[in-house]
Write a structure and sequence with these properties.
heterodimer; A: 254 residues; mainly alpha; 11 helices; elongated; B: 305 residues; alpha/beta; Rossmann fold; Alpha-Beta Plaits; four-stranded antiparallel β-sheet; 10 helices; 33% helix
Chain lengths: 254, 305
């Protein structure tokens, strides 16, 4: 426990000092601000570009457009940035040998994995909360009248998916020695989830639904209860992956 | 009982068998020089002792406790200095020692006083820079400081002096000597003069086993040849001595270089007195009469042949 807390402190310090935290927060902050703004301005930008002959009628932008931007940016660019930033979570320490010193001081390998996961989860939580908060406030300001449903739950699903992705990332990092290997395995895993999604009955339990059904939830075309299975499955899978990472890392020859 | 006992250690990497039944016993309060060629398995042995590598068979006990691979319990008694110590470049030495201390579970006050004391010892007291800007030698010194932080009973150093300049090397050796009072030091190297300077025991690792092991004086005594170097005033005396008929025996080998004659007596009945008697009979007064000491280098070369 002592080792876990000390190492967690070091991890947080490291993210702050190596600008990783700053990059994550600023990327998500930029998304947070631009999401509603883009939704509001896009029709006007298009209009100004139109020549006289062509007439396209665009619907008035709504809060839905802002949230579409939010979920699109966060699930695509956001998660990719996160995966790349965190892909060196173990490999950089192992290749440089910085971890050896601490392990020979009596730090347990379990504590290493758990504190690394905790720290990644904290950074992700802070980033997505910041992005969500900014989008929320701005949307309220730009589209005060529009109502959305299941907004909190939909954001929760995205957050949960991020935690799941981090668990997969950690597991891949424990399996391989390089950060590229780690990204590759994570990518393969996500693609596998997408392919798996083709089976209609699997959709209900597939973690990927947490990152693809968000708009459906908000527009009420997808019922919240239909996602519960996926929430549970991704939670359990996350636990399993973290556990597997611990087991694999314990067996690793350093 | 030794503070570190290694029994019948075997380890292979792929097809290459690195350790083939290594036995080693390190008594308390010694400085143990662990010598071997590059790639002989020194680092592998150390990593197994630290539980970082899994041996194929055999056992290691530290302070009477068996080392288990993947667990780090026995490491509380050990301080380790890796061959190329790497630290988090964004920290300064104090912050790093604080992290190490917290992991070991020392109380905060104790970490502070101990790190101040150790940084003083290794000469990094006034260093406010981040570790990222440190030279190799400074990192090596910080490495020793972090290894000594938890007052280990056993300090393991993996080639602490290689790749350092002569002054840096001397300083590191002095620091190790200073640490000797409180701890047992096992230190691997292939620089024999370092061993000679500070170690009281030596073990030579060759072909996966210890080829030579014991205190340095003991080994030297065991390996001492009956070799003598006699230097004469002029070449004539040397030639006369060399051709004396008492020395024309199969058990005596002679060689002359100018006015210096080297004599090897293989017969155990004979010793230096025999030569001294001869010299007085011939009324020669040599400029120098020297008993040949085996050098560590010659012993090492013999051991790994």
């Amino acid at each position: 426990m002592k080792g876990y807390l000390a190492f967690l402190k070091k991890e947080i310090y490291e993210y702050a000092k190596t600008y990783k935290l700053l990059i994550m927060l600023s990327v998500f902050a930029i998304f947070g601000i631009t999401n509603p703004l883009m939704a509001k301005l896009l029709p006007e930008i298009l209009e100004s570009l139109m020549t006289d002959g062509i007439v396209i009628t665009l619907p008035e932008p709504t809060a839905y457009d802002a949230w579409t931007q939010f979920f699109k940016n966060a699930t695509q660019m956001g998660l990719i940035v996160m995966a790349i930033l965190f892909s060196g979570v173990l490999s950089s320490e192992l290749s440089k040998g910085t971890l050896i010193n601490l392990l020979t001081k009596g730090l347990s390998r379990t504590a290493v994995i758990l504190s690394k996961y905790t720290c990644m989860a904290l950074v992700w939580t802070a980033s997505i909360a910041l992005c969500f908060g900014l989008t929320y406030v701005y949307t309220l300001y730009l589209f005060p009248k529009d109502e959305t449903s299941n907004l909190m739950f939909s954001a929760f699903c995205l957050w949960q998916f991020g935690l799941f992705l981090l668990a997969v990332l950690l597991f891949s990092a424990a399996l391989t020695k390089s950060s590229y290997g780690c990204l590759l395995i994570t990518g393969i895993f996500i693609v596998a989830c997408m392919i798996f999604n083709i089976i209609p009955s699997a959709h209900k339990y597939n973690p990927i639904s947490l990152a693809s059904d968000n708009m459906g939830l908000i527009m009420n075309s997808v019922k919240a209860s239909s996602i519960y299975g996926a929430v549970l499955v991704s939670f359990i899978l996350s636990l399993i992956f973290v556990l597997l990472s611990v087991i694999i890392f314990k067996k690793k020859q350093l | 009982m030794g503070i570190l006992e290694v029994k019948q250690l075997y380890k292979r990497f792929g097809n290459r068998e690195v350790l083939k039944g290594l036995d080693m016993d390190v008594p308390e309060h010694s400085i143990f020089g662990f010598v071997g060629k590059n790639g002989a398995g020194k680092t592998t042995t150390m990593k197994i002792i630290l539980g970082l590598l899994k041996p194929d068979s055999g056992s290691v006990t530290v302070c009477g406790e068996e080392v288990r691979y993947g667990e780090t319990k026995t490491n509380r008694n050990i301080g380790f200095l890796p061959d190329i110590p790497e630290f988090y470049g964004y920290m300064n030495p104090r912050e790093y020692l604080m992290l190490c201390g917290e992991i070991t579970g020392l109380p905060k006050e104790k970490i502070k006083s101990k790190s101040a004391e150790l940084l003083e010892l290794v000469g990094l007291k006034d260093e406010k820079r981040k570790i990222g800007g440190f030279s190799r030698g400074m990192k090596q010194r910080l490495g020793i400081a972090q290894a000594l932080l938890n007052e280990p009973k056993l300090l393991i150093c993996d080639e602490p002096t290689s790749a350092l300049d002569p002054i840096g090397r001397k300083e590191i050796l002095d620091i190790l000597l200073a640490a000797k009072g409180n701890t047992t030091i096992v230190f691997s190297t292939h620089i024999l003069s370092d061993v000679e300077r500070i170690c009281d025991r030596i073990a030579v690792l060759h072909d996966g086993k210890l080829a030579l092991c014991g205190t340095i004086s003991e080994i030297k005594k065991r390996r001492r040849h009956n070799g003598f170097i006699i230097e004469f005033e002029n070449e004539n005396e040397a030639i006369l001595f060399e051709n004396a008929k008492e020395l024309k025996q199969p058990s005596i080998s002679l060689s002359r270089d100018g006015n210096t004659v080297s004599v090897f007596l293989q017969d155990h009945e004979m010793d230096g007195n025999f030569l001294l008697n001869m010299l007085s009979q011939m009324h020669f007064l040599p400029l120098k009469f020297e008993v040949m000491e085996p050098t560590l280098e010659s012993m090492f070369l013999e051991a790994v042949r």
